[in-house]
Amino acid sequence: MSRIKACFDALKKEERGALIPYLEAFDPDRETSLSLLNGMVDAGADIIEVGIPFSDPSADGPTIQLAAQRGLKAGATLAGVLEMITQFRHTHKTTPIVLMGYFNPIDRYGVERFCKDAAQAGVDGLIIVDLPPEEADIIRPHIRAHHLDLILLTAPTTPDDRLKHILKDATGFVYYVTITGITGTNSATEEQLTQAMTRLRRATSLPVVAGFGITTPEQARSASKITDGAVVASAIIKEMAATFQDGKATEKSIPTALAKIRSLAQAVRS
User: Fold this and answer.
1) What's the number of domains the chain is made of?
2) CATH number of the domain within which 210 lies
3) Residues 155, 4: Cα–Cα separation, whole Å
4) Is 15 labeled as catalytic in the residue annotation?
5) Running DSSP on this structure, what letter comes out for residue 23?
6) Is residue 49 annotated as a catalytic residue, yes or no?
7) Residues 24, 60, 117, 124: which is the catalytic one?
8) Burial of 172 (0-12, 13-18, 19+ CB in 10 A)
9) Of 49, 117, 124, 149, which residue is the catalytic one?
10) Each residue's pLDDT tens digit, 34-79
């Protein structure tokens, strides 16, 4: 059984949704990023989404764009991100890791090689934002061969017929983009989420998590009740980045980010 499925099965017994915090690898440096990654588990993360820094992150808002720029400046590479996850796996065996990124770095790395190395590093799932389902056959056989989950995105504007096409090959969970926009901007209402979930439940039996625009503990609680989990990204990065001096981490940086995650975890569990 995959770590992702085991996680959602356990949460179903607890009758709650997942908290899925996000970090941008190497932001603002490798050491800080790895320390935060390790600390997220005890802070209450059920699944962790790790962003691969990329120079043109088209789906991301300004907060994550700046984090990606800091990560690239700190020397982030795809191989470096995988090595960081390998280190994480030395002490954290069960928490699922989902890599989020864009196809260009994967293509440059080599698709087959990437899937093999990602699985060996301890990655469980992949979100490739700019790879449409129609073109996913370039990577899907290698994902399956190495027992990774390909996590696909849906949005409020996705028509019903396309929804079925997208979800027929989805595994792990479905990522519902709650707004029509970029990360860290607006948020969906409870009514909008409820209506979306009614439609999504008809199209898939996989868990569905909500992301984009979830910033507060109250929003995370609401989203995790209506869906199967809440992804929180920009809000964590923004609070941590406010502690930086000249773009570098301070002694307050990691505690600030972990305090945010604890508040989110407490809300999701309440």
Assistant:
1) 1
2) 3.20.20.70
3) 22
4) no
5) E
6) yes
7) 60
8) buried
9) 49
10) 999 999 999 999 999 999 999 998 878 899 999 999 999 999 999 9
